[in-house]
Amino acid sequence: MDAVQKREETSQTGTHTQPGGGGGSGEQPSSHPELRGMSYDEQLAAVTPAAEAASAPTFERWVQAGLNAAQDASLAVTGKLDKATRSATRAFQKKAKRLQVDGIVGVKTTAALEKATATTAPSLREADAAKSEADEEAPEEQADTGAATVAEKPAVRVDGANAAAKAPGGPTTDAATTTEAPPEPAPAEALPKGLTEALVAAAISWAEGQGYAPEAIGALQAKIGAARTGVYDRNTVVAVYKVQSDGGKVTKVSTPGKANTAFFHKRGLIAFKKAKAVAAPELDALKAAHSGGFPLGVWTNYKTKNGDNIEIEKRAGDWGKAVNAVGVSGGAVTMGFATPITTIEEVVQVVQTVHASLLAKWKATDPKNPDGTPATELPEHLKVRNLALFSHGMEYGLSLNAKGAYKDGLQSGAGGYESNVKSFAKAIAGATTKDLGVQLFACNAGRDIKLLEERTKKAGGDKKKGRDAASYREWTEHDENKRRGDGSFADELNQALEGEGKESSVFAHLTAGHTTENFAARAYGKAAEGVKDTDRKDDETGGGAHMFDVLYTSDYINTQLGRLLPKLPADDAAVRGKARTGLRERMWSHYKDSISSEHKRKESEKRFGEPIGRLMFMNPEAAKKLLQGDFATWLPKHLGDFATTYKKYRA
C-alpha cells in the first residue's frame, strides 16, 4: 500500500461483520423444534406454506425497523440479522427485562418488541411492501449503496398483539384486533457504523467547496454504486464511506465520506471542476484562423526545474506560437500559446473552459439551423481538433502533474491505479471534433510493450538491459508496413476515443528522445489506416503504424522505383525486389535526416520551413508532401553504391 492509499484508508482492525444466525432459544415455538439453529430466512422457508412462499414478507426487516423505532438503534433495514441487529436485540432484551438476553427474536421478544412499538413500528407486511417499492424505484447504481428504506411511522397494528402473526412465516401467538394510522414519509437510509449525520453534512459541505463538475461526480457515483445524480449528496457520502471503511473492516477513516483527488485517481477517475465561461476571442477571427477546429496544447509545469523540464516548456511555447493554439490565460481564452498545467484535472478543465466560453459566446449570437429553428450543437470549427500534450512519458502514461507522478497523470494502469484513459476520453468528448488528433509530445508513449517484455525476458529479467535492447529495436527497425505497439498507452487512448464515437488519430514516440523531433514514432487510428499489415490477417490495422510507413507509402516507393529505374525487368522479381529494398533504405535515411539532423542545423541551412517531427504529428499529409517533394532533390547526392549497382536500369 502506497502513501496515498495509507492516507485514504487507514488502520484496519480485521473485524468482519457477518450475517446473523438468529437460531432458536428457550423462546422458540415448541411446535417447531427443528428451527433451532436456523437463520430466520431458513425459518421462514420452513414454516411458510409452499403456495405462500413466493409472496411472503421477510420478518427480519420488521425486526430491524422495530428496533430502530423502539430504541433508535440506527440499523440498516437489510433483512439480514447481522451482528449489529443481534447487538441491538440484546440491548432491547436487557432493557425490557424478563427476557432472555441472547440476541434471538423469539415469540416473547417479538411480543415485547411489538408492544414497545405499538404506535411507531410497521407491520411485517408493511415493512416488506415498503422494501419492494423502494427496490422497484431505485436506479441500478443503488445496488451497493446500503439498505432499503421503510416508513418511520406507517400504518401500525396495536393492542399488544403480535403483528407478525398476521403475515405468513412470522412467529405466532394469539390473534389480535388491528387498527391503522396514516403513513408518514420514509426516513433517510440508516448510516453505517462510524458515520454520523454530522459527518455526512460536513462531507457534503466539503464537496461543495471542491467544486467538482457534475460529470466528475456522476462518474464517481457510477464507480462506487451510488445513484447517479451528478450531485455530491447523502447517498454519495455513504457510498464513499463504505469504500473507505472497506465494508466496516477499517475502523478509523481520516476523511469520512470525502472523495479527495487520491480517491478519484485510485479508481481511474479524474476529479475535474465545473467549467465556467470566460472572455473569448471573436468567433469570426477564430474561424478564419482555424476553419475545421483549432489546436489546443498543455505543458506540464513541473515543480523541479531541470534541463529536461525546461525543454518541455520551451518546445510547447514554440508549438503554441507556430500553430496559433488556443488556450486559457489571465482569466480569458486567448490564442498563440500552450497552457501550463500542474494536475491532470487542469488538462480537462482547460479543454472544458475553452468549450464553455466559446459555447456561451456562440449562443449569444442567437444561432439558427438552416430551417430557422434555434441551433444547439456547437459547430465543429469551435471545437478542439488537435490536442497536444507536452510531458514526460512512458508506455503506461504521461506524468501530467507538477510532481511528475505517473499514477496521478494520464495513465493506463500506473502505480497500481485503475486506468483513467476512458474517463479522460469521456471528459473531453463533447469539446472535441469527430476527427480529433492527439499529439503525445512525450517519450515512450507508443512503445511496443510486447517487444519490451520479450527483450527483458531474453536479458534474464534485467529490466535495464531489456529496455535498452528494446529501445535499440524501436530506433532502428523499419520493416515495411509492420504494425506494432498494441496495448501501449497511445493505443489505449485511441481506443478510448473511438469508444466515444471519434474517428481519432493518436501520435506517439517509441523511445526517449527529443520532445518533438524524434523519428521513432507511430500513429494510431485514422491517420494510420492506410498502412495494412497483411501478416496480421484479420487484424491488419491493429496496433500502430510507423510514421515512416505513413509518410513514405508503398505506392510512393513503387512510383519512385519506376521513375528512377524504368528499365528494370518486369519478370525478374528478385532483381526488382532488391532494387526496391535499396531505394526504400535511401528513403529511411532521408526520413531520419529530415528530423533528427535537420533540427540541429543552422537556420540558414535548414531545408524545411518548420520542424518535420512536429508537423508530422499535427498534419501528416502536409509533412508527407514536404518530404516527398524534398526527396527528389536530396537523393542524387545520397545514392551511394545504388547508382553504380543499378546504372544499366536507369533512363
Could you describe the 3D structure shown?
It is built from 23 helices and 14 strands. The protein is α/β, with parallel strands linked by helices. Helix content is 40%, strand content 9%. The radius of gyration is 34 Å and the shape is elongated. The strands form four sheets. A seven-stranded mixed β-sheet has the order 6-3-7-11-12-13-14, with helices on both faces. It has a three-stranded antiparallel β-sheet with strand order 8-9-10, with no helix packed on it. Strands 1-2 form a two-stranded antiparallel sheet. Mean pLDDT is 83; it is low at 1-57 and 119-187. Helix 3 (59-71) packs across helix 5 (107-116). It has four domains: 33-166, no CATH class; 193-266, no CATH class; 283-447 and 483-547, no CATH class; 552-649, no CATH class.
Radius of gyration using CA atoms only:
34 Å
Indicate the percent of residues in helices.
Answer: 40-55%
What is the mean predicted local confidence, pLDDT?
83
The biggest sheet amounts to: 7 strands, mixed
Quaternary class:
single chain
Number of helices: 23
Number of E-state strands: 14
Percentage of β-strand residues: 5-15%
Instruction: Decide which structural class fits the backbone.
Output: alpha/beta
Question: How many distinct folded domains?
Answer: 4
The strand line-up of the biggest sheet is 6-3-7-11-12-13-14
Envelope shape: elongated
* Low-confidence blocks of residues: 1-57, 119-187
Terminal residue distance:
71 Å
